[in-house]
């Protein structure tokens, strides 16, 4: 038999480490599936995991570790900055990568980021979606609070373009390492802003929500996919502070055989069931697996990236039907518009009760 190594970049440290177990669990489910499929052909896959740290520098080191380990392709990273840092190292070595969660619009540039694919839509689409949600919920005098990293600035630009820079009550950027949001929230209060749009990750988002409460902010809070999961509330002193926050994230697919099978497998694993972008991590792994299978029946010297592109034409995945553009992008399935609901016992759920699409807006 033959063993093929696939790399997996996972943010085991850094601001979204809370989600790393979910990404890893989803990838492990995919690996099991691939190895059952490969068993009859004498082909087995091994996953080599490296920490991407949600940073370009950490991910570049992780990528080199994966190259040294002999991987043929890499699934990841999660954070856009990490993906950019890893791509520089991987593409130089001729190794393709598929991100399961990086949404920065700049990644669509195939010349700047060669051999790059992703199974999540660019934030060039999520910005207008989130703006439509703010309008539908009568969000007024909007204060935009965003991290100035690759994810945050790309998404913030997209939202600002849709909302109109002149229409913002305040636009407050902060370093992703920020932990004290007293002065940032003070700006929101001083400008008498009526609502806040958060483009953040779980840890900083939670700290901002707590500081808004501490300064007696009573307006509506909106957020993007970086906070659209119960993980946002987990680190809060009082998780019920999440109650009523509205956030967008890429919508799940119309159910299909693969999405239903994955949902059952994922639901049986605590880490996976509690995660975000788990179906996407699963799909990215499976697409690489199919491409490797295809390589054995393809002309010698066919690049794996060409086979990934071919597999990703109408690929029916757990997170939707994916068709890669020449730049490795997908159009997505629209966005879930969800609300955080706190129960009497202090538990919080994030419920997708509305939907946004490019064609139909909010329904």
Automatic annotation (TrEMBL):
InterPro entries: BCAA_transport (IPR051010), GPCR_3 (IPR000337), Leu-bd (IPR028081), Peripla_BP_I (IPR028082). This is Leucine-binding protein domain-containing protein. It comes from marine metagenome. Gene3D superfamilies: 3.40.50.2300. Keywords: Glycoprotein, Membrane, Receptor, Signal, Transmembrane, Transmembrane helix. It is a multi-pass membrane protein. It is found in: Membrane. The keyword DNA-binding does not apply. GO terms for molecular function: G protein-coupled receptor activity. It holds the Pfam family Peripla_BP_6. Residues 3-264 form the Leucine-binding protein domain.
């Amino acid at each position: 038999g033959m063993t093929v190594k696939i790399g997996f970049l996972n943010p085991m440290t850094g601001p979204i480490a809370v989600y790393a177990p979910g990404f890893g669990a989803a990838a492990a489910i995919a690996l099991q599936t691939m190895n059952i499929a490969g068993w009859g052909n004498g082909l087995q896959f091994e996953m080599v995991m490296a920490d991407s740290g949600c940073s370009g520098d950490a991910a570049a080191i992780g990528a080199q570790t994966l190259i040294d380990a002999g991987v043929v392709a890499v699934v990841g990273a999660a954070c856009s900055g990490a993906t950019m840092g890893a791509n520089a190292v991987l593409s130089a070595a001729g190794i393709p990568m598929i991100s399961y969660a990086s949404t920065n619009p700049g990644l669509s540039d195939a010349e700047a980021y060669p051999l790059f694919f992703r199974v999540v839509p660019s934030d060039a689409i999520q910005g207008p979606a989130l703006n439509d949600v703010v309008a539908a919920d009568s969000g007024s005098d909007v204060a935009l609070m965003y991290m100035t990293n690759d994810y945050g600035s790309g998404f913030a630009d997209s939202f600002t373009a849709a909302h109109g820079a002149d229409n913002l009550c305040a636009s407050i950027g902060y370093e992703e390492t920020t932990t004290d949001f007293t002065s940032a929230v003070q700006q929101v209060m001083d400008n008498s802003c009526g609502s806040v749009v958060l483009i953040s990750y779980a840890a900083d988002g939670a700290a901002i929500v707590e500081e808004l409460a501490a300064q007696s902010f009573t307006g509506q809070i909106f957020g993007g996919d970086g906070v659209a999961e119960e993980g946002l509330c987990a680190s809060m002193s009082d998780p019920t502070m999440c109650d009523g926050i509205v956030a967008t994230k890429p919508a799940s697919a119309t159910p299909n055989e693969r999405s239903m099978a994955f949902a059952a497998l994922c639901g049986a694993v605590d880490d996976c069931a509690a995660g975000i972008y788990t179906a996407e991590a699963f799909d990215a792994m499976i697409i690489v697996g199919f491409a490797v299978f295809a390589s054995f029946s393809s002309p010698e010297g066919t690049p794996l990236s060409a086979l990934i592109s071919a597999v990703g034409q109408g690929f029916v995945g757990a997170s939707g039907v994916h068709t890669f553009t020449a730049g490795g992008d997908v159009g997505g399935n629209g966005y879930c518009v969800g609300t955080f609901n706190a129960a009497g016992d202090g538990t919080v759920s994030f419920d997708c009760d509305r939907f946004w699409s490019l064609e139909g807006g909010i329904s």
